[in-house]
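Encode chain A's predicted structure.
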Amino acid sequence: MAGYVARRLMQSIFVVWGAVTVTFLVVRLVPGDPAALLLGPFSTDTERAALRAQLGLDRPFLLQYASYLIDVLKLDFGRSFRLDAEAMPHVLATFPATCTLAVGAMFVTLLLSFPMGIVAARRPHGLVDQMISTASLVGQSLPQFWVGIMLILIFAAGLGLFPSSGAGSLHSLVLPAFALALPYVGWLARLVRAGLLEELSADYVRTARAKGLSERVVFSSHALRNALVPVVTAAALVLGTFLGGAVIVEVVFAWPGVGKLLIDSISFRDYAVVQAAVVLIAVVYAGLNLIVDLLYGSLDPRIRLAGD
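Encoded structure for chain A:
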């Protein structure tokens, strides 16, 4: 078990390094001069060159990359020239808002997808199953920004039930959580349905029925537990997506999280904040995957025995 954890940790470190490298390259390939953005359109070439030298942007590209990797190993993610503060503390300050939104969206996803998947699996190919499948496909095809705008127009501007922007209360969380969760509700519901149908046709389920166990016991204690293994994996990936991919929803609802900070920092070419935010998201995503792998053994003893 210790060897498996060590291998997964090494893979996670490689993933984080890849995210750091790709982000470092991309933010510097995007057109735009941070010095010009900071100093404004009326600054002189001499002033811009002096600021670039002060920020270290005049050094060779590979030297900048090597210096940045060394700083990351020392947990030094640089200083934001836009905010005039250390980058990572500012990113961490906005991370709780993103976590709140992600957890809220995850709650909505699980609350809707599990009952939908279970009901569809209990009566496969029936009218309810077809209605759930159709609704799932429609939900997956709707863009998040469009869903967010429609929710604002209907429930905020039209009915006045929820605020259209900002954070700080449960009411302000409802609309962005639904907008973020909706495309994944149908996907997870179909995964639950497919897993349950596969387990219900397995030999051990037929054996349990032959022993005289009730259908409720067979469904809840046997099929549902084993069907949770791929669902847990998918749920962890969805949660990681919520943490790292809530950018559009945060911008639409003016939610003060990492995603909105990331967009603002990209606009100002604030390299330190962009890189710090991506490193944090990559570490969280890799950590979630590692936790899910370790939970497999609790859900399915066959996986634990195979690993041992």
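The radius of gyration is 24 Å.
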